[in-house]
Amino acid sequence: MKKVTILDYGSGNLRSAERALSRVGADVTVTADPQSVLDADGLVVPGVGAFAACMDGLRAVDGPRMIGRRLAGGRPVLGICVGMQILFDRGVEHGHDAEGCGEWPGVVEQLEAPVLPHMGWNTVEAPEGTVLFDGLADQRFYFVHSYGVRDFPLAADGPPTPLAKPKVTWAEHGDRFVAGVENGALSATQFHPEKSGDAGAQLLTNWLQTLD
Prior knowledge:
Layout: E1 3-7, H1 14-23, E2 27-31, H2 34-39, E3 42-45, H3 51-60, H4 63-72, E4 77-80, H5 82-85, E5 88-93, E6 96-99, E7 104-110, E8 118-123, E9 140-145, E10 147-149, E11 167-173, E12 175-183, E13 186-189, H6 197-208
Parallel strand pairs: 1-2, 1-3, 3-4, 4-13, 5-7
Antiparallel strand pairs: 5-6, 7-10, 8-9, 11-12, 12-13
């Protein structure tokens, strides 16, 4: 049974994420204890609300450093909703520019759409070779957000590099935005897999199967 720690920093659907992961066979702990965070087979970083407030809560428990230490050792991390957004360089909300964890280049900003928030079920466009979305073609996932990443420089076509490019999943609501990322040990979804029924459960199962 894979040991998964959900990082408790005062923001996020902790209990629904805990229940969803337990249902698919994980041994789940909800804590900010550094040893538990570093020792777990997988770390889940949830998040709801404003980008800046989530970053304040994350810094209060030394979250950015713990996430960085796990990734430096190739230890899997999964960000969910704002827990995905804070992995990027910056978030801009209501004119306030906040620094993120900087694991990926990119800016979280308000979507340009006729109706916000983007709330409800939506399909996604997953890349070839995806692990998270294996077996999930044409499935719908549950989103609740007004902000997202519309431009992901690492995913852009360019000259060959020795580093594997992230596998990026996209969705559309007015704008095209990043719905998921798989990048070595670091994965994330803009939607809530824990609220996405059988499709979300399959995605979490797929992630658990990547844990050593």
